[in-house]
Write a sequence for this structure.
């Protein structure tokens, strides 16, 4: 077993660090702009997407004919780790463009769909930004309960219904939408399909939801007699549930390496701060930091295992869920330990004179504030544990 990256991969790591120095402002804060909460921030995020595209990094693992570089999963892992560590924004093309729209189109899409949508994402342009419409007011963990309908009329689907918590819907050009195409199906897991919707279509209304710390990250999206050509159906009609179970692995699988980079950086900042304040003289502080450091190392190894499995051409089943549960646990510990260490400074926000302190400590605070949301996004801890039980331990299924 050779447990290190190749020279080429290490050189690539250095190249990314040079990019960070050249392109991100020197006072770039951990966690800063993560939600792109103003037009100005969004413009900056998109400018970085464009530069990542020009470097050939944005969609590096995709095949060349669809705008990728055919890069290995290991090279992509180095990119994800460094991206998380330095907080490089603009890597996602909305919440879903890079991580699961492209890979899902390779698995289930038509050649026409691949050639139309994937190069748009790979170009890092606003027309390649996606949102994902899965959740509804009565369909979150119980995703198969979704009610939004797409009824076929001639060469079109007519869509009516509502989605909720749709991240980046206000910025997206396209929606990766889960709909019910057969309202009379025998079970609720059948009769679901995936349809691509142009967010500029008449009848689409996006209404912002501000989260409890005042950020505009997600939205409600309403569909009122929205007409979509049948060519926008992805994969087989009424088989959407089964397709999604595969493509959700990409959503959750992409989390681990970037999260590892992010968590490692937050830990390093905390250690630096605690040391500077003389707090590391206290044994309980040293032990809490050591505890979370162990978890972060475990996270690194599990992330590598998931990538290794994917690089062998095997589809991950329970591993992405396992990685996500572990990350949620680490975020809980890291932010709680962090808030203990920071004390009153933990209440600083990114504004005005507070910026100097935010730069050093803001990542921890923003982590704490976003903790509940982060652990629900892409499926809650209990949903993930049900998946681990079923696919990892061979226990009875939960639905
Ligand atoms: C930051 C953020 C971004 C998001 N972005 C998007 C997006 O872009 N697109 C999108 O479609 N959705 C998005 N979501 C929604 C997210 O997918 C849902 O919040 C999530 O699936 C949980 O659904 P829910 O909120 O309806 O909670 P519920 O499903 O109502 O769950 C409430 C609680 O009950 C528990 N629970 C439910 N069922 C079970 C069970 N069978 N066994 C054990 N416990 C159970 C859950 O774990 C949870 O603790 C986002 C959410 C957040 C927080």
């Amino acid at each position: 077993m050779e447990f290190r990256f190749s020279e080429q991969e290490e050189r690539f790591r250095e190249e990314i660090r040079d990019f960070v120095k050249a392109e991100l402002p020197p006072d770039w804060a951990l966690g800063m702009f993560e939600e792109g909460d103003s037009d100005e921030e969004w413009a900056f995020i998109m400018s970085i997407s464009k530069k990542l595209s020009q470097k050939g990094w944005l969609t590096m693992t995709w095949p060349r004919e669809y705008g990728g570089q055919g890069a290995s999963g290991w090279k992509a892992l180095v990119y994800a780790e460094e991206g998380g560590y330095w907080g490089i924004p603009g890597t996602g093309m909305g919440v879903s463009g890079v991580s699961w729209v492209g890979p899902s189109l390779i698995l289930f899409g038509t050649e026409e769909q691949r050639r139309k949508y994937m190069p748009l994402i790979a170009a890092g342009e606003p027309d390649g930004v996606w949102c994902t419409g899965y959740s509804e007011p009565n369909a979150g963990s119980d995703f198969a309960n979704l009610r939004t309908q797409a009824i076929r009329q001639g060469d079109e689907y007519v869509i009516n219904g509502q989605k909720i918590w749709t991240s980046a819907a206000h910025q997206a050009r396209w929606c990766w939408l889960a709909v019910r195409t057969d309202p009379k199906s025998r079970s609720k897991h059948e009769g679901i399909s995936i349809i691509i919707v142009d967010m500029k279509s008449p009848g689409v209304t996006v209404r912002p939801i501000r989260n409890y710390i005042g950020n505009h990250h997600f939205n409600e999206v309403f569909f009122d007699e929205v007409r979509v050509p049948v060519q926008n159906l992805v994969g087989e009609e009424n088989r959407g549930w089964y397709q999604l179970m595969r493509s959700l692995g990409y959503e959750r699988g992409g989390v681990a390496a970037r999260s590892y980079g992010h968590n490692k950086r937050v830990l390093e900042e905390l250690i630096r701060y605690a040391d500077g304040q003389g707090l590391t003289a206290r044994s309980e502080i040293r032990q809490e930091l050591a505890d979370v450091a162990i978890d972060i190392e475990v996270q690194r190894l599990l992330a590598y295992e998931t990538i290794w499995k994917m690089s062998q051409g095997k589809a991950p089943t329970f591993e992405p869920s396992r990685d996500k549960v572990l990350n949620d646990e680490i975020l809980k510990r890291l932010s709680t330990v962090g808030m203990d260490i920071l004390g009153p400074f933990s209440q600083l926000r990114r504004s005005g004179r507070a910026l100097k302190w935010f730069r050093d400590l803001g990542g921890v605070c923003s982590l704490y504030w976003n903790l509940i949301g982060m652990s629900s996004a892409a499926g809650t801890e209990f949903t993930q544990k049900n998946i681990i039980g079923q696919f990892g331990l061979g226990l009875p299924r939960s639905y």
User: Anything to note?
Assistant: The first strand starts at residue 130 and ends at 133. Residues 255 and 324 are 7 Å apart (CA to CA). The mean pLDDT is 89.
